[in-house]
């Protein structure tokens, strides 16, 4: 069980005990609270499935001392101090997010052993002249909130105690939990060349996510290395992920790994690595405008490109605005070049109730429904060794479970290479 589910179980147990009138069975409020807090300790110390195994221990056997409770509190507080750097200014967002304006040279990225003592690389304010898509439907920087961060700072979404309590463990917060849970993909893939970046416009929706630990996303991947071994990836797009944020809002996100998601990398800015440089753009922020079925369609433009001056991977948004960069030193294979580029959708299938999840991908509609109904990614391009944006050459299409989610590829003068993708999840054909 996830930690929140365990807490709910104990609260129910506490209420039931209070309803009993036998004096010997009545627990004081203070004892019940102590049991509840100590159970939280166990959730972080013991394996997450310890109460679900055939030989599970009784609750009394798993309780720990009050000292361990205090140690847990200290551990959470220490971890939060590591992630949440001191703020020059704090902005409260109406959706409940807290944005801290942190001095750019004090951000978490520079806690990385390979980046300690460094300062942000000098970057141009934008690369608008390289942008060939335009900003049709793109969100403007600074539209996420009415206030702005001061010069010399960057906006960072604050990590809270509640965020930590949703994690499988304190140390795993912000990372992908690699296990045997199946993922479904509907993607287009380039894998026959050397790629120095990619760019596309991503249609934005709010897919339904059935389980807190499931997600639904639309993104692009740059990858190099061996899957399951030493895979390097850089990822950017939008997703809905209740486990990470505690809500079902559509948010912009990034991810990276240098060892196939084993021990390196994280979402957004939850670990040292990605260097944020744009004072107007909070990574992990809610996207304020969403597409509607048979209604207005909105998209965001994302570009990742190799900086030939230093080898870093730049992240750009909208009309060529630089958000920051992944230092080349984070990687092994991606230190040089990507050998794969993917665009498309992905979901996690926890199989709640024993059948396929009803989590939707994209708009929740199949690609054959087309514009205004199905999700799309348009103007997909890759970057060659001369920094030229070029069309996709002989791409492959992969739908791991086409009865649940599918993909169609098209080409047109205005939209270039583009795809429609997605689906509803569990139906009579997807079970």
TrEMBL record:
PROSITE patterns: NEPROSIN_PEP_CD. It comes from the Eukaryota. InterPro entries: Glutamic_endopeptidase, Neprosin, Neprosin_propep. It comes from Pisum sativum. Residues 177-431 form the Neprosin PEP catalytic domain. Pfam families: Neprosin, Neprosin_AP. Coiled coil: none annotated. This is Neprosin PEP catalytic domain-containing protein.
